Amino acid sequence: MQASDWLQFALFLGLLTLITKPMGLYLMQVLDSNGRTWLDPVVRPVEKLTYKILGVDPQREQGWKQYTFSMLAFSLTGALFTYAILRLQHLLPWNPQDLPGLSHHLAFNTAVSFTTNTNWQSYGGEATLSYFSQVVGLTFHNFVSAAVGIGIAAALVRGISDRKTSFPTRSTVDRVFQPGETSSKTRSTVGNFWTDLVRVTYYLLLPVCVALAIFLVSQGMIQNFDAYTHAKTLEGAEQIITQGPMASQVAIKMLGTNGGGFVNANAAHPFENPTPLSNLIQMLSIFAIGSGLTYYLGRMVKNQGHGWAVWAAMMIMFVGGVLVCAHYEAAGNPIHQQLGITNVDRVFQPGHEDQTSSQTHPTGNMEGKEVRFGLFNSSLFATVTTAASCGAVNSMHDSFTPIGGLVPLFMMELGEVVIGGVGAGLYGMLVFVILAVFIAGLMVGRTPEYLGKKIQAKEVKLAMLTLLVLTLSILGFTAWASVSAWGVAGLNNAGPHGFSEMLYAYSSATANNGSAFAGLTANTPWYNTTLGIAMLIGRFLMIVPIMAIAGSLAAKQAVPAGPGTFPVNGATFTILLIGTVLLIGALNFLPALALGPIVEHFLMGQGQLF
Amino acid sequence: MMNPLFTELRPAILATLVLGGITCGAYPLLITQVANATFHDQAHGSLITGKDGQIIGSALLSQNFTAENYFHPRPSAAGSGHDAASSSGSNLGPTSQKLHDALKERIAAYRTLNGLTTDAAVPADAVTASGSGLDPHISVKNAELQAARVAKARNLSIEKVKELIIANTTKPDLGILGDAGVNVLELNLALDNVERVFQLVPSK
């Protein structure tokens, strides 16, 4: 890494740290049904009208089962809605290129993909989807799947926090699911799904996206409903230029950590990421809400040190990932270097003519990367997008060096808990927190407690369930694909890199990331279906046990901390949490990683080609 | 057990319609209106129009150049090359035989075309495909290595060509963000404009 790289990295980390607290404080207001924001005069009437149309009482809190049922019903409706739009694309408006409807397996895969906040794309946007499908079918999920994730995280935090003192107990307990609960002083409810959904969309996602989209257009991003432009190039050839309502979709794609590109090349495309400045702002918007949610956690549990300890654990793993990725991408590929490649010029030097100096430059890996971003911003973006379950890419991960490509793969296999997807990152990390507290409790021989609430067999079993399901889906599907004709038929690369393509696909789908080693031809019935199932497992088989944990903890009485209580703030806890994530989360995947990127790294050093 | 799910379907359908109307109707239309009013050119693809009113291309997208008197962009894996309706990288991995062979061929061709020695170092960006296949930039080093060829083909002094390279170099945003790059289409347009001036002078 050069000096300018360190400077850019410091700028990114500094800005992220600065926005974490304001975002957390704003989330406190958004996720409180009585919260106050500066948007109230305009948005409050619309919010009230929405509840009226939906027929829900925003003040009536739900138990964990009720909340989960609402979420499942809403997700199912949304998935069917998008499936129908994609199948009937040719009959719907805003289709100037006359694109046909999608096949049943691609429509299933895409509808599931966007509903689960994955945004895996088995297709190239500009050649497959009409503007109507993009704007109505997909942008809708970019908003609401993000709002759902934030709502689930808030529900879990509400369950963890001891709310009986800060909120007056009203007759808010759900009588259908919690009979006999009315006299308890502890609230066993976790919030109202519809209130969270509406408030997050109206007060957080939409206002930020309006500002973000306009900024992105100022940088050169397109936003129109024109037909594709026919240009006649300087050498007289015809060039057809893609158009469309891109900025409005890209803003939420980043902020909501969705990541589904408007065009095939995603954020590598000069329209979808025109400048290094747009690149910086896009990376910050990927992390903004996830980072702010850790502050929200600290506020809600009245232990800000805990929020920062969780944040610090995330950031330490993130910085480590960036440094490894950037190092190996800058070091480059020895096989290609022997052919006579030098690195691109990093610094603008007018009149600089010393051609021999290029011999001493590091000879980085520019395949699949854009000149305006260069090696470092490509490595940084790759780590951000996989740490955060976004999945947008500004360079092609498939063409990364083996270890450079291992970093994004590893980030996903940790379970997307390094900042993570909006909401999903926090609830995933809190599973590890519960396990860390449990392990610490075993070590000192005490009943583990987390913020005064006892962690018992039920919570630990549920937490382990989410992790085992994740591992089983990733490794099981990868193993199946790698011994099947349909699996191997989709590969773009041979040897260990081909195995990495499959491992990356199922890691990305299960972790609800959506980025790809994009050489894989996944638009086949087998891949579309298995990846779709992996996405459903990764989303809903995570959420349901987590909601059960939320409900179980919500019903527990908090006891004051004693001398034997393990503190969940400070450096010791942060280190224990990182250790838990790495040992429990990642160890499962080491054998698979050894068969893919690790063996490829050593073969590359020996000049082996496939 | 399934009953609660069904009772929730009514608000679910209504929420889909209401939120859909706002996030997929009002929101994108608002952005389109504001974008068109404030940044019209950018919102429509930063298109460049020639003297005859014909659209030449986009300032943000590469297009193919093969003639000796033009600077050449990076190799492209978009469609059959620089296809602005089918963006793509090569997605070939580090141990790919196919990528290795392509690089070997491109490096030899680049050296021959630009009169370099057979062991001259070639800038990575000149022979590797970009992520989008539409990268509008090449590195400054890449442009400098092509300058002599272009100058000769156009009967221009190499100083003049290098002057134009500097004038068409995009510097890092805010001085530190990203890498410098030369916009190939804009540089080639600037070269064509120089030639017109030179042709006008003798005819006076």
From TrEMBL, chain A:
One cellular-component annotation, GO: plasma membrane
Organism encoding this protein: Brevifollis gellanilyticus
Subcellular location: Cell membrane
Family stated for the protein in its record: Belongs to the KdpA family.
Quaternary data: The system is composed of three essential subunits: KdpA, KdpB and KdpC.
Annotated keywords: Cell membrane, Ion transport, Membrane, Potassium, Potassium transport, Transmembrane, Transmembrane helix, Transport
Chain segments annotated as transmembrane: 6-28, 67-86, 140-160, 202-222, 280-297, 309-330, 417-442, 462-483, 533-555, 575-599
Statement: the UniProt record of this protein carries the keyword Signal: no
Topology relative to the membrane: Multi-pass membrane protein
Phosphoprotein listed as a keyword: no
InterPro entries: KdpA
Protein name in UniProt: Potassium-transporting ATPase potassium-binding subunit
UniProtKB/TrEMBL annotation, chain B:
Membrane topology (UniProt): Single-pass membrane protein
Pfam short name (any one): KdpC
Residue spans of biased composition, Low complexity class: 76-90
GO cellular component: plasma membrane
Subcellular localization(s) per the UniProt record: Cell membrane
The keyword Ion transport is assigned to this record: yes
GO molecular function, one term: P-type potassium transmembrane transporter activity
Keywords assigned by UniProt, alphabetized: ATP-binding, Cell membrane, Ion transport, Membrane, Nucleotide-binding, Potassium, Potassium transport, Transmembrane, Transmembrane helix, Transport
Keyword Disulfide bond (UniProt): no
Function noted in UniProt: Part of the high-affinity ATP-driven potassium transport (or Kdp) system, which catalyzes the hydrolysis of ATP coupled with the electrogenic transport of potassium into the cytoplasm. This subunit acts as a catalytic chaperone that increases the ATP-binding affinity of the ATP-hydrolyzing subunit KdpB by the formation of a transient KdpB/KdpC/ATP ternary complex.
Protein name according to UniProt: Potassium-transporting ATPase KdpC subunit
Species the sequence originates in: Brevifollis gellanilyticus
Gene that specifies this protein: kdpC
